[in-house]
Amino acid sequence: MSNVLVFGHLNPDNDAIMSSVVLSQLLNQVNYNGDTYEARRLGPLPAEAEKLLAETDTPKPRMLNAIKEKANPQQVVLTDHNEAGQSVEGLEFAQIIGVVDHHRIGNFTTAAPLHYIGLPWGSSCTIVAWLFGILGQRPTDAQAKLLLSAMMTDTLMLKSPTTTEFDRIFAAQLGEQLGVDPIKFGMEVFLSRPSGSFTPEEMVGNDIKLFEVGGTKLLIGQYETVDKSRALGMVPEIREAMKAYMKKKGADGIVLCVTDIMEEGSQVLLEGETAVAQKGLGIEDVAEGVWMPGVLSRKKQVAAPIMAVK
Ligand SMILES: [Mn+2]
After folding, report:
1. What are the residue ranges of helices labelled H in the chain?
2. Within this chain, do residues 103 and 232 fall inside the same structural domain, yes or no?
3. Which of 61, 133, 190, 296 keeps 20 to 30 A from 226, CA to CA?
4. What is the 70 CA–ligand 1 centroid distance (Å)?
């Protein structure tokens, strides 16, 4: 019997946290493989996650800083990511026994067979909700609440183009169980974020991922807000924070999407070596950034077209 660590990506968002927390609970509930499962996190808890965990009396996952080389490698399950560049330091020393994810597959290899559940649905928590049925379980109300919250934040209340029929079906089911309207509930979750107090550094580093594209290291960040005007009043400071973050991470370029959930679009700022991003997005590096209407999904509308540049 081993203790398997279950965790989402670096700079965790609500989906990374809730998918690891609820999946580890589910696997413990069914005594999967006779192992125990412990949720961990690779960064600070987002404000909404902290609030939801407290409301449901769910223990906060402990921080995981690095994995060390051991004779018996640490077994892990990755949720909401699969790329080493977005994962824990020392992942190469771990044995990845499972992945539950809704992202592209980077250069992913393992030595042994594994559980790999990759579905292009709107959130990793939708996949976890589906796994409850597969394993003959029904989520508790607390689990339903945690799952639904992340399904709503990851799909921007089912408005993002990443939203699928399955997200709608499971959101309706969980909403019915909880007696809430999923969209209204999602709105409350969004409004529990302290958006008014974000500093430029937090806007840049809050939700950012590293991608390798054509030999260059490109950071792509997203800051979601219900009112972009405050953020856009601080563009020079945000640009300074972008440069500093890029330097700290040793990246060549950085893209930041300031996504306005209400106006349904993103203001895109570029710093450093971003020729590939400019080509992929069909935009230029303009001082105040470029407004891209309808762009809500980093994965589908920002990262994918950049990755597709030849
Ligand atoms: Mn996700």
Report:
1. 14-29, 47-55, 124-134, 141-154, 165-178, 182-191, 200-205, 228-232, 235-249, 275-281, 304-307
2. no
3. 61
4. 30
Judge whether 42 and 10 are in contact, CB under 8 Å: yes
Q: Name the pTM for this structure.
A: 0.87
Centre of ligand 1 to C-alpha 79, Å, is 9
The length of the chain is 310
CATH of the domain at 165: 3.90.1640.10
CA gap 137, 159 in Å, rounded: 29
CA 154 to ligand 1 centroid distance, Å: 6
> Nearest-5° angle of CA 149, CA 151, CA 153?
70
CA distance 189 to 268: 25
- Three-state DSSP at 115 gives strand
Q: How many structural domains does the chain have?
A: 2
Cα of 287 vs centre of ligand 1, distance in Å, is 30
| 123 alpha carbon – ligand 1 mean position (Å) | 5
Question: In angstroms, what is the span from residue 80 Cα to ligand 1's centroid?
Answer: 5
Last residue of a domain, one of 141, 174, 191: 191
How far away, in angstroms, is 72 Cα from ligand 1 center? 30
From ligand 1's centre to the CA of 125, what distance in Å?
Answer: 8
- Same-domain status, 267 and 301: yes
* Mean pLDDT to the nearest integer, 221-229: 88
> Quick one: 203 and 113 in the same domain?
no
Residue 195 has pLDDT above 70, yes or no: no
How many angstroms separate the alpha carbon of residue 18 from the centre of ligand 1?
A: 10
Question: Of 160, 176, 191, which one is at a domain's C-terminal end?
Answer: 191
Residues with CB under 5 A from ligand 1 (ion): 15, 80, 124, 154
- Domain hosting 269: range is 195-307
